[in-house]
């Protein structure tokens, strides 16, 4: 059975087009078919690649999707691959790039590993988001986070947050972030939430600039349902999912967040442990570390 890999590149980033061409050349020389997206094909300019519209069907039957860009590009890729189950392998050409598995300097090694099939696939938890208002339901999802945020800059947003059908607290705030472990290093981190290792199964609830005595970040069970209600005294609010999909929330709207049954699949090369990523991305001081403590035999 022939192998096919889908390529996505943030063609607006320096070096993305060159990087995409390098990967495509290595794959084609190894006899692996390549697909590119219609809106990127002209910039990449690879004659032998198949061109597909940027819709989920583009990833159907593909062994893998290689993404060249930052975390935003990878979130875009997740929209095309989640339903088909195609794994995504990210190469970071951006700034932080927590979702990416490799850096630009690893590019040749990434292509070589794909050619030889030396990669694993892990499933990342996704959250389903249900918005209810006046008998109408709207459904969406997020890999990183769903955030309910204020619209009027000069006023606090009044929200009531509940867990598993029980009210928890009323917050006057700028908003609330409900995040996955994958999203703990994104918006939730900026709002003061904890960093959660990707393999931990949990949801995070992080208030944004809340004027309340109890307004700590919460870590709740992945089996829980988190509800955020926009109270009637508000002028309205807005829901953002992964910073890509948005929905206006009128007064009285209720947002329910729970773990999804459909994950996003990421390809792993195991080049860098998550701890090392934290150290590198944030420039954490590790001087004085003496290495793993060895247990003496008795």
Automatic annotation (TrEMBL):
Involved in the regulation of the intracellular balance of NAD and NADP, and is a key enzyme in the biosynthesis of NADP. Catalyzes specifically the phosphorylation on 2'-hydroxyl of the adenosine moiety of NAD to yield NADP. The active site is at 71 (proton acceptor). NAD(+) binds at residues 71-72, 76, 144-145, 155, 174, 185-190. SUPFAM superfamilies: NAD kinase/diacylglycerol kinase-like. Keywords: ATP-binding, Cytoplasm, Kinase, NAD, NADP, Nucleotide-binding, Transferase. GO terms for molecular function: kinase activity. The lineage of its organism: Bacteria, Bacillati, Actinomycetota, Actinomycetes, Streptosporangiales. InterPro entries: ATP-NAD_kinase_N, ATP-NAD_kinase_PpnK-typ_C, NAD/diacylglycerol_kinase_sf, NADK. The gene is nadK. It catalyses: NAD(+) + ATP = ADP + NADP(+) + H(+). Its main location: cytoplasm. It comes from Actinocorallia aurantiaca. Its EC number is 2.7.1.23. This is NAD kinase. Belongs to the NAD kinase family. It is found in: Cytoplasm. It holds the Pfam family NAD_kinase. Its cofactor is a divalent metal cation. It comes from the Bacteria.
């Amino acid at each position: 059975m022939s192998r096919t890999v889908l390529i996505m590149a943030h063609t607006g980033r320096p070096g993305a087009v060159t990087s995409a061409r390098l990967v495509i050349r290595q794959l084609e020389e190894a006899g692996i078919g390549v697909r590119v997206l219609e809106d990127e094909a002209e910039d990449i300019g690879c004659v032998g690649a198949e061109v597909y519209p940027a819709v989920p069907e583009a990833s159907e039957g593909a062994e893998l999707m290689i993404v060249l860009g930052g975390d935003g590009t990878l979130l875009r890729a997740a929209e095309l691959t989640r339903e088909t189950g195609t794994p995504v392998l990210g190469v970071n050409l951006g700034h932080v790039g927590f979702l990416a598995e490799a850096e630009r300097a690893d590019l040749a090694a990434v292509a070589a590993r794909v050619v030889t099939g030396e990669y694993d696939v892990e499933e990342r938890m996704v959250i389903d988001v249900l918005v209810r208002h006046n008998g109408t339901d709207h459904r969406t999802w997020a890999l990183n986070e769903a955030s309910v945020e204020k619209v009027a800059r000069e006023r606090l947003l009044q929200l009531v947050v509940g867990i598993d059908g029980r009210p928890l607290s009323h917050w006057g705030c700028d908003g609330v972030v409900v995040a996955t472990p994958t999203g703990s290093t994104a918006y939730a981190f900026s709002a003061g939430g904890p960093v959660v290792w990707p393999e931990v199964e949990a949801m995070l609830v992080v208030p944004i600039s809340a004027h309340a005595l109890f307004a700590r970040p919460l870590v709740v069970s992945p089996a829980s349902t988190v509800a955020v209600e926009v109270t009637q005294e508000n002028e309205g609010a807005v829901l953002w999912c992964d910073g890509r999909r948005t929905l206006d929330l009128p007064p009285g709207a209720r947002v329910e967040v729970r773990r999804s049954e459909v994950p996003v699949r990421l390809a792993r090369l195991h080049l860098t442990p998550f701890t090392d990523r934290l150290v590198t991305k944030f420039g954490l001081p590790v001087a004085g570390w003496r290495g793993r403590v060895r247990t003496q035999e008795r």
